[in-house]
Design brief:
269 residues, alpha/beta, Rossmann fold, 8-stranded mixed sheet, 3-stranded antiparallel sheet, 8 helices, 11 strands, 26% strand, binds S-adenosylmethionine, binds zinc ion
Length: 269
């Protein structure tokens, strides 16, 4: 089933020769990497979201499998809550590591989207069988009730759009950092490191039905990996100069990882 809808008029988007188009002649070219930019602001997609270097850091770090326990758990949720042939959406897919992981294990129709063209370009280059597009979470260009299972990791929460795109029996899994997540890294960066508050997104449109905690540890001995991890985090934007100095001279890093998966369904009427 084709779930994509035109971001201009809302009609179904057809897949043509290297472009997608609707019956009202709105047309969106397929980029050479294979993704489609459905952001109405046109060329500015390059400037939105993470820059090229941050996207590359996330890509390199995740490809080494450091967060594979999380990917495994998300995949287990997708297996539990969807069936062969169902539609699965990776909301704010970033550079596509988790999408690709699921495509390797499950027989579903996969779609991923993100506002950052830098991220989506890397995701599309994975050639994993998923369809990737550039879009804003505030206006997801897919049809109402067209998604059987969605996952949404470390990104802004938009409950009305999630609720709109999910089928009535659909499930969405969100990830937020657990209390101890990357505490070892924060001990390096800050003189007063803090624990995460484990706040679940507030929602009145969706019903929280289960919580899964995924705990692990990282023992990094490559300064390149340490720096890539740092660049993936929000700390990248607010680390004091002395913390940066400590980070730059670091040759090894031990830190806990802790993810919380929150499983939401649409309330049954
Ligand atoms: C921390 S990254 C997580 C990416 C991916 N889910 C992962 O775990 O690797 C957050 C992602 O949300 C995307 N994002 C932020 N605001 C967005 C929006 N308004 N619409 C779509 N994507 C957005 C960013 O571009 C970025 O790729
Ligand atoms: Zn249209």
């Amino acid at each position: 089933m084709n779930i994509l809808k035109c971001p201009v008029c809302g009609k179904e988007l057809q897949n043509g020769q290297r472009r997608f188009f609707c019956e009202n002649s709105h047309s969106f070219d397929t980029a050479k990497e294979g993704y489609v930019n459905l952001l109405l602001s046109g060329k500015s997609g390059d400037c939105k979201g993470d820059n090229r270097e941050m996207a590359r850091s996330r890509h390199d770090f995740l490809n080494k499998g450091y967060y594979s326990p999380l990917a495994k758990e998300v995949c287990a949720c997708a297996e539990k809550y969807s069936e062969s042939g169902d539609t699965v959406l990776d909301i704010c897919c970033g550079e596509g590591y988790y999408t690709e992981y699921l495509t390797k294990h499950l027989d579903r129709s996969f779609y991923g989207f993100d506002i950052s063209k830098n991220m989506v370009r890397l995701a599309a280059k994975r050639k994993c069988g998923a369809d990737f597009f550039v879009a804003n979470i505030a206006s997801i260009p897919v049809a109402d009730k067209s998604v059987d299972f969605a996952f949404h990791l470390f990104a802004p929460f938009h409950e009305d759009e999630f609720s709109r795109v999910l089928a009535d029996s659909g499930v969405i899994v969100t990830a937020v950092p657990g209390k101890n997540h990357l505490y070892g890294l924060k001990k390096v960066l800050y003189s007063k490191p803090y624990y995460n508050d484990e706040k679940a997104p507030q929602t009145s449109f969706l019903q929280l039905t289960d919580i899964i905690r995924v705990k692990g540890e990282l023992d990094l001995d490559d300064p390149g990996d340490i720096n890539a991890l740092f660049q993936m985090t929000p700390y990248y934007y607010h680390t004091p100069a002395n913390g940066m100095k400590r980070l730059e001279s670091l040759e090894k890093l031990y830190t806990e990882t802790e993810f919380i998966l929150l499983i939401y369904k649409k309330p049954q009427r």
